[in-house]
C-alpha cells in the first residue's frame, strides 16, 4: 500500500498564534529544522500544558519525519480537546505517515486508526478541506480488501466541491485519473484551471497530458499557463517536454 498523503506536511496557520510559534513556523518554512526543534522544545518546556506548544512541537517532529513523537504530541491534543477537528486531522496524518514508514504487516495495525481520525475530523468540521483531501487519498491508496474505494473517495471529492469548487474539481479529476477514466479527469482539471487558474491547477492538467504522452497538448497548456502566470518553472518544464516530443 502506498499511503502517500499529499496534504502533508501540515499547513501552518499563523492567525492568533504567539510570536514564538510564528518564529518556529518561519524556521520550518526555511527548512531550518534543528533550530525549529530547539525553539519548540524550549517553548514546550516552559509551557508543558499549553496546547499551542504541544501542537507546534508535533509539527516540528512531523517535518523531521519523527512520526512516533509527532503521534505522541498530537494524541495529547486529541485527548485534551476531542472536539477540535484539526487535532484529529494531524493525528491521522502522522499515523498515516508512520504506516508508510513501516512494514505492510505493521501498517495494517495502524490504518484503521488513520481512517477513524480523518472521519472524526470530517464529522467535526463540515468545512475542513484538508481532511477531505486526506480521505480522497486514503480511500484511493488503501487496498479494497481493507476498505479502499474510489466510490468513497468520490464522496469526499464532492464534499470538497461544495466547500471549494477548485478543490472539488481537482479531487474529482484525481479520482477519475486513478480509475484511468482520462476523459472525465481532463474535464475536471480543465474546470479547475477555468475557476482557479493557479499553477497547481495547470500542473494537474499538464501532468495528465504527459502521462498520456500527449506532448502537444501538454506544451500548449504550458504556454497558456505561462501567458497567464509568468512562472519561469513552466519554461523549464516545456523544454523537457519538447525533448520528448517525436
UniProtKB/TrEMBL annotation:
The keyword Zinc-finger does not apply. Gene3D superfamilies: Tetratricopeptide repeat domain. TPR repeats lie at residues 51-84. Keywords: TPR repeat. PROSITE patterns: TPR. Transmembrane segments: none annotated. InterPro entries: TPR-like_helical_dom_sf, TPR_rpt. SMART domains: TPR. The keyword Cell cycle does not apply. This is Tetratricopeptide repeat protein.
Amino acid at each position: 500500500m502506498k499511503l502517500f498523503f499529499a496534504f502533508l506536511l501540515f499547513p501552518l496557520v499563523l492567525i492568533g498564534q504567539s510570536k514564538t510559534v510564528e518564529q518556529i513556523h518561519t524556521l520550518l518554512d526555511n527548512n531550518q529544522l534543528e533550530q525549529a526543534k530547539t525553539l519548540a522544545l524550549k517553548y514546550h518546556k516552559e509551557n508543558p500544558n499549553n496546547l499551542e506548544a504541544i501542537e507546534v512541537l508535533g509539527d516540528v517532529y512531523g517535518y523531521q519525519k519523527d512520526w512516533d513523537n509527532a503521534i505522541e504530541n498530537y494524541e495529547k491534543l486529541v485527548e485534551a480537546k476531542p472536539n477540535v477537528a484539526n487535532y484529529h486531522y494531524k493525528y491521522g496524518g502522522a499515523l498515516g505517515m508512520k504506516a508508510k514508514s513501516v512494514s505492510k504487516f505493521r501498517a495494517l495495525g495502524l490504518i484503521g486508526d488513520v481512517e477513524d481520525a480523518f472521519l472524526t475530523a470530517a464529522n467535526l468540521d463540515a468545512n475542513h478541506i484538508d481532511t477531505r483531501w486526506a480521505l480522497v487519498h486514503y480511500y484511493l491508496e488503501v487496498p479494497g480488501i481493507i476498505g479502499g474505494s474510489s466510490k468513497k473517495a468520490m464522496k469526499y471529492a464532492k464534499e470538497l466541491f461544495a466547500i471549494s469548487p477548485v478543490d472539488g474539481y481537482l479531487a474529482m479529476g484525481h479520482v477519475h485519473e486513478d480509475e484511468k477514466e482520462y476523459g472525465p479527469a481532463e474535464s475536471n482539471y480543465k474546470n479547475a484551471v477555468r475557476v482557479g487558474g493557479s499553477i497547481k491547477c495547470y500542473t494537474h492538467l499538464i501532468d495528465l497530458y504527459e502521462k498520456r504522452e500527449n506532448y502537444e497538448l501538454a506544451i500548449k497548456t504550458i504556454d497558456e499557463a505561462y501567458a497567464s502566470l509568468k512562472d519561469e518553472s513552466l519554461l523549464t518544464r516545456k523544454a523537457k517536454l519538447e525533448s520528448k516530443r517525436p
